[in-house]
Design brief:
This protein is mainly alpha-helical. It contains eleven helices and three strands; from the N terminus they run H-H-E-H-H-E-E-H-H-H-H-H-H-H. Helix content is 59%, strand content 4%.
């Protein structure tokens, strides 16, 4: 599930139920946060970040979260103290099994309790206790079934994650990540004394060809790739003139030597040597 499919499904649900501008803002803010975390699902997010980012009061955000969860477009879990809330998109693949376990170990709200209480109250004060008891028993049974299903689903997800190890990144992945960072390109161009940051793309392509021709394996991380690239460029600039300043044909005279014959100034104390 990608960004556009999630957005399309949200608008499809918006046509079936009334959707306010604040609900749209909260949903796409959460979607953007998930995308910023490279689609980590579930992910953690503090309430203050939503308040600051959307300029909405906490009470409004709390109500909107509940409505979005009832529509099935998001799910979230609040925790005690200062711990951030955990959000997830049910339609997305689970990539963080540790946070997903929190949903399995925390039972969902007992909807049966509310239904049983409402039904008992409607029949009259004489049957309130009986209706509540039935509702509580039904709600607890449903919560236990839901908890068991979530635990089984979590176990299957963990097994699928173990069976499918994360693929090792290649040179193209490192180059794409480097080019996506404008700050890194500007700082690198400044440190390497390049004309512009756009030259880095050509140099990265040359560096990739160099690594392949040398039979080198892809680096362990982007950090090592960037470090190797800078060392390679500085070495190439010394060995090949196109990568740096071409050598001059008129070397600077050594210290203490005369570049040419200087004229003798009268009165300087130096006598002219007679021509032989």
């Amino acid at each position: 599930m990608d960004y556009f499919k999630l957005a399309r499904n949200f608008w499809a649900s918006a046509r079936l139920a009334k959707t306010t501008p604040a609900e749209i803002s909260v949903f796409f803010f959460l979607l953007h946060q998930c995308n910023e975390r490279y689609w980590e699902n579930p992910f953690e997010l503090h309430m203050i970040e939503i308040e600051t980012g959307l300029n909405l009061p906490r009470k409004t955000i709390t109500q909107i979260r509940d409505r979005l969860r009832k529509r099935g477009v998001i799910d979230f879990l609040t925790r005690k103290g200062s711990a951030p809330a955990v959000y997830r998109f049910p339609e997305c693949k689970v990539t963080n099994a540790e946070l997903f376990d929190l949903f399995a170990t925390s039972p969902s709200p007992q909807k049966g309790n509310a239904k049983g209480n409402a039904k008992g109250n409607a029949k009259g004060n004489a049957k309130i206790e009986k209706g509540n008891a039935k509702g509580n028993a039904k709600g607890n049974a449903n919560a236990n079934d839901t908890l068991l299903d979530k635990k089984l689903k979590t176990k299957n997800i963990k097994e699928s994650i173990k069976e499918k190890p994360k693929p090792k990144p290649n040179f193209e992945d490192f180059i794409s990540e480097c080019l996506s960072s404008e700050i890194w390109k500007e700082e690198t161009a400044k440190n390497l004394q390049l004309d512009s940051a756009g030259t880095i793309e050509t140099l990265l392509s040359d560096f990739r060809s160099h690594c392949i021709s040398m039979g080198l394996e892809p680096h362990e991380s982007t950090k090592f790739f960037k470090s190797h690239f800078i060392r390679w460029y500085r070495q190439e600039r010394q060995n090949h003139p196109p990568y740096g300043t071409p050598p001059t044909n008129n070397p600077r005279p050594s210290r203490g030597s005369f570049a040419g014959k200087l004229p003798i100034v009268p009165g300087c104390g130096i006598e002219r040597r007679p021509d032989s």
